[in-house]
Amino acid sequence: MQFNATVHFASPKKAATYINTLLKKNLDQFLFFISKKLRNRNYKTKMMNHQLFLYSTFSMTILFICWSWTTASELEQIINNNDNTNKSKIKVDVYYETLCPDSIQFLLRQLVPNYDRIKDKADLRLYPFGKAQFFESGNSYEFYCQHGPKECRGNMIHCCVLHQNSYDVSLPFIKCMEKELYGLRRPDVDFVAQKCANWTNIDWKHVDDCTTTNLGKQLLVDAGRKTKAVKPKITFIPTIILDEKYSERIQDQALYGDFVKLIENHYNKKNEHETK
């Protein structure tokens, strides 16, 4: 017996009623089938009839139990899917730099390893800019980054990758790049980025073309404007903000605590508040 997990119910009670109706219908059909078979066959002895009846009853009971277990599991899944459809994700904004040791630690230890566990609850947005500065220069822009020109290059590469790909595709690349760059005194950002693009099946030429055109510069400027618009002003990188409200407690828990629990608690609290 199969159920369509895309069916939505107004309440768990209605879902249970629907499942019970299907179960009763199939059970009635099974009983009718068994009784018909018993009536239509001529058996030599009453003992054989009795044994067959016991065997059929036992089989029917086992089947009924299996149906019940499957139904309960699928019912729970249907109800959960229905509930999640109506819930609001929380906004998770991460402001970071590609060569910042603290940023790398957060990305490698907290965000990337746990992304699959939070992506259904979090609307993630990454801004690779940090404490950099940008200035208009004619029809273009110039950038100055906390850890030098190579960080500006790395930030722009991340901007282009994030612009061109989903987070499911971008984060493995970011993880690879940050892991390779961590601790290097003289990092070759382009070499590492190209290697990681090959490892994660990202078109490096497409990314590189983005970074060498006005598109890459504009994406980095946009990340910079988002970073500078945060209130209160960002003083530490990385900074993690939930639902556009900075909290020192949330910042500390995101960096050093249970990141998944933080997201889940905030998500549940937000949706409990919205349903009241």
TrEMBL record:
<keyword id="KW-0472">Membrane</keyword>
<dbReference type="GO" id="GO:0016671">
    <property type="term" value="F:oxidoreductase activity, acting on a sulfur group of donors, disulfide as acceptor"/>
</dbReference>
<dbReference type="InterPro" id="IPR004911">
    <property type="entry name" value="Interferon-induced_GILT"/>
</dbReference>
<dbReference type="Pfam" id="PF03227">
    <property type="entry name" value="GILT"/>
</dbReference>
<keyword id="KW-0812">Transmembrane</keyword>
<keyword id="KW-0964">Secreted</keyword>
<keyword id="KW-1133">Transmembrane helix</keyword>
<protein>
    <submittedName>
        <fullName>GILT-like protein 1</fullName>
    </submittedName>
</protein>
<dbReference type="GO" id="GO:0005576">
    <property type="term" value="C:extracellular region"/>
</dbReference>
<keyword id="KW-0732">Signal</keyword>
<comment type="similarity">
    <text>Belongs to the GILT family.</text>
</comment>
<keyword id="KW-0325">Glycoprotein</keyword>
<feature type="transmembrane region" description="Helical">
    <location>
        <begin position="52"/>
        <end position="70"/>
    </location>
</feature>
